[in-house]
Amino acid sequence: MHDKTLAELAAALAKREVSSVELTTHFLGRIERLDPQLNSFVTVTAEQALAAAADADARIVRGEAGPLTGVPMAQKDIFCTDGVKTSCGSKMLDNFVAPYDATVVERFKAAGLPMLGKTNMDEFAMGSSNETSFYGPVKNPWDTTRVPGGSSGGSAAAVAARLAPAATGTDTGGSIRQPAALCNLTGLKPTYGRVSRWGMIAFASSLDQGGPMAQNAADCALLLNVMAGFDPKDSTSIERPDEDFTAHLNQPLKGLKIGLPKEFFGAGMDAGVAKAVDEAIAQYRALGAETVEVSLPNSGLSVPAYYVVAPAECSSNLARFDGVRYGYRCEKPKDLMDLYTRSRGEGFGAEVKRRIMIGTYALSAGYFDAYYLKAQQIRRLIADDFKRAFEQVDVILGPTSPTTAFRLGEKTDDPVTMYLSDIYTIAVNLAGLPGMSLPAGFADGLPVGMQLIGNYFDEARLLNVAHQYQLATDWHRRMPGGFE
Amino acid sequence: MSLSNEDVRKIAHLARLAVREEDIEGYAHSLSDILAFVEQMSQVDTEGVLPMAHPQDAAQRLRADVVGETNQRERHQAIAPAVEAGLYLVPKVIE
User: Fold this and answer.
1) In chain B, N or C terminus with fewer CB closer than 10 Å?
2) How far apart are CA A71 and CA A166, in angstroms?
3) Is A76 annotated in the active site?
4) ipTM higher than 0.90?
5) How many separate domains does chain B show?
6) Residue B30: inside a domain
7) Dihedral of alpha carbons A102, A106, A107, A109, sign
8) Do B76 and A99 touch (CB under 8 A)?
9) Distance between B45 CA and the closest CA of chain A, angstroms
10) CATH no. for residue B24?
11) H or E, element range at B76
């Protein structure tokens, strides 16, 4: 059953070929048996999952099922889950049992999807390899000596190894798309404001966005139908009428204009990645799309600008972790200052501390204009580049990440090298656009992802463009050896 | 921009982070590397460019001033490190 897509599992449930309890038991068994190799889960919620599955079965019998009722899934451990530990990959929240559900979690509960557990991640979503987690690194199921990408590395590894049919991720600078690329999955970062951030532990509030990770685009569309929608509890949630993201999946691509940004095809990309992406472009031409060269002249400054904006927002957001109301508190604080500084110093890992300090510095008196204001101006230039490109084309295509999965430990000593792993994804977050990654082939046995970028609120078109490619190719169906 | 050990101590204090003395040097290096990398921003002229704080340039939404949430003090304090009589406990701040 585990090789089936979400849509296929939902169909099997609707036809009563399998029950939700059977499916959930099957996936829980796989997690128990196979996850020790991967470390993709922080918490497995077997008991709650089986109870939710029994409820889902009853709902199916009553004829009250929704499109995904009864299909189990996993939640990234950044989403608050009522009564279940929500660690965000940090020692700071190792003892934190959330007192409420994130809106995303609430929506999946209401739709009847049992939660298998909470997936491992880079600490506070700060990382591109899942090596900054307090719970240890996650391994890539395609090669367990390599990283799955990050920060949604646990979600990516779990779905790639078919320990869960789908999972949620969050993407601040590429944290859904880059791990999806490195693990041969399809992942979508929606337009900023599409998916509620309520109960999603904040890293950089003007960039963070939750989204689905699954085997293919059709499954992502079904998941986004559950996740997306206006939420009055999130002050940046966009008020728009609900949309059916599956509605345009079957539209042919004839006449589609695909922009190829010349800045995304230069030096720095591995030859194997370049080859796979070139073949994907040829496939799109065969499907009737037209390709046009476009330019995003300021995209080269996206990583530097991001490493001011994101740390600045993180230093402010993470000020809430002070050892007073919840989370880690140091032993025997001698005074209030000692309580604050030691709880934070002992509770946060090195990369989180680095980013808090960069942000603190960039926002401090005398440096604000040179760093934060400058970065926000560059952000405007980057968004304007995309605006001009979308006057010419419908979607933009390029690589997701410059390399395939790298080895564990390869980039941990050099933060800047690690940051460049997100060189093609970060501009999309700065502009607030939707972007997705989908399997485009393999290089030396490791998955290569291609990225599709859409105009604001154009997720349905992105999903259509990805789905049509997946009807013509089978890269997304390939499974890692040893996890059959 | 290169940061000294003293700069790191000052920033760590502003951020309320206790950093072990033996780690200061390492942070001075890595933070300096990051700032040197970020320095590339100065290559582009941004004179007169309006800073972008929000992807859709949306304004903060307002809501009617009516009661929504109910008080859940016990529930929220159940996960606190130290609580007494409905209050969060911290070390003494006034002698």
Assistant:
1) C
2) 9
3) yes
4) yes
5) 1
6) yes
7) positive
8) yes
9) 9
10) 1.10.20
11) helix B73-77
- Show the domain range for B10: 5-42
Contact A324 B27 (CB under 8 A): no
| Cβ contact A162:A30 at 8 Å | yes
- Cα separation, A454 vs A436, in Å, equals 9
Q: Are strands A446-454 and A395-399 parallel, antiparallel or unpaired?
A: antiparallel
From CA A103, how far away is CA A189, in angstroms rounded? 17
Residue type, A93: L
pLDDT class for B69, splitting at 50, 70, 90?
A: confident
In eight-state DSSP terms, residue A331 is: S
A262 labelled catalytic:
no
Give pLDDT tens digits for A363-380: 998 999 999 999 999 999
Q: Which three-class secondary structure string do you get for A454-483?
A: ECCCCHHHHHHHHHHHHHHCCHHHCCCCCC
**Helices B5-14 + A350-363 axis angle, to 10:** 90
Catalogue all structural domains in chain A, each as residue range(s) with its CATH number: 6-256 (3.90.1300.10), 300-375 (no CATH)
For residue A99, CA distances in Å to A110, A235, A360, B78 come to: 18, 21, 30, 9
| Residue A175 is a catalytic residue | yes
Q: The tokens 């599409």 sit on which residue?
A: A194
Amino acid type, A336: L
- Residue A462 token pair: 């992105």
pLDDT at B61: 83
The answer to the question of residue B47 being in a domain is no
Report the pLDDT averaged over residues A328-334. Answer: 97
Q: At what angle do helices A217-227 and A103-110 cross, to 10 degrees?
A: 110
Asked if residue B67 belongs to a domain, the reply is: no
Helix (H) or strand (E) holding A439: strand A435-443
